[in-house]
Amino acid sequence: MARKDNTENPGRLKQIAQTYKMTRRVDRKIGWILAGVGLVTFGVLLAIGFLIGHPVYLGIVGVLLGLLACAIVFGRRAERAAFGQMEGQPGAAAAVLENIGRGWQVTPAVAMNRSQDIVHRAVGKAGIVLVGEGNPNRLRGLLASEKKKMNRVVGDVPVHTMVVGEGEDQVELKKLRVKMMKLPRTLQGQQVTQVNDRLRALGDLMSNMPIPKGPMPKGMKLPKGPQGR
User: Fold this and answer.
1) Are residues 188 and 122 located together in one domain of the fold?
2) Which helix (H) or strand (E) holds 195?
3) Own/partner pairs for 212-220, CB < 8 Å, 24+ apart?
4) Final residue before a domain boundary, out of 71, 86, 101
5) 141-176 pLDDT per residue, tens
6) Which of 4, 24, 30, 174 would suit a FRET pair with 74, their CA atoms being 20 to 30 Å apart?
């Protein structure tokens, strides 16, 4: 058990260090902000301790709460920095969806057009959510076509559509998870699995993508389809 703990702790510390470096590239003041949060929290608790006659006790509490406050602030700013780096990158919405948490089953790139506007699918207790990233005007038709396909397969299961972006009627990447979690829940856990299984029977974009006839252009690689099917 001791050996296992020794191997896990360096890994966690390394991950924290990497996250800090990534955040600092975007948020140059992160170090000063964390130091300020920690010192202010500690100072306030220590001052209260002197006022009530227990400086040592509240000083220790101040250290612990200071570390907790730093962890909370660091987590939020690291998340903001990560979203800032992903913003506008192809597949950013899929990355957010795949980390949305338990209860959602995500299938990236269920539809794509020649301009590489993409639609991803997530199935959860709120029903089906189709998330598009790319040009909003082109995505309208792509989302409508995919939604029509979903309705034919799942009947009265709710199908929601969202477009990632910063324009009108669009959802910012950093708010995508919150937006989806606020959707009304209409399905039970077993129903979610059943709906997802029915949709997977349709096949995804990569497994259904036609292979062009004739010689393959130099340097072009075939897309990797699902394994083990």
Assistant:
1) yes
2) helix 189-200
3) none
4) 86
5) 899 988 888 888 887 888 999 998 877 888 887 788
6) 4
Q: What is the pLDDT of residues 89-110, one digit of tens each?
A: 666 787 778 777 778 888 888 8
Domain that holds residue 170: 92-208
Report the domain count for the chain.
2
pLDDT bin (cut points 50, 70, 90) of residue 221 is very low
Q: Give the CA angle between residues 148, 100, 82 to the nearest 5°.
A: 115
For 167-219, what is each residue's pLDDT tens digit? 788 888 778 888 888 888 888 878 888 888 888 776 644 444 443 333 333 44
Amino acid type, 34: L
pTM for the predicted model, two decimal places: 0.59
Question: What strands, in cross-sheet order, belong to the sheet with 118-124?
Answer: 105-112, 118-124, 127-133, 159-164
Q: Is residue 143 located within the same domain as residue 175?
A: yes
204: exposed, middle or buried (Cβ count in 10 Å: 0-12, 13-18, 19+):
middle
Q: Is 105 helix (H, G, I), strand (E, B) or coil?
A: strand
What are residue 191's phi and psi, to 5 degrees?
-65, -35
Q: What are phi and psi of 214, to 5 degrees?
A: 90, 180
Q: Do 118 and 204 reside in the same domain of the chain?
A: yes
> Token pair of 117, please?
């506007």
Task: In whole angstroms, give the CA distance from residue 133 to residue 153.
Answer: 23
Contact 180, 122 (CB under 8 A): yes
Q: How many helices (H) and strands (E) does the chain have?
A: 8, 4
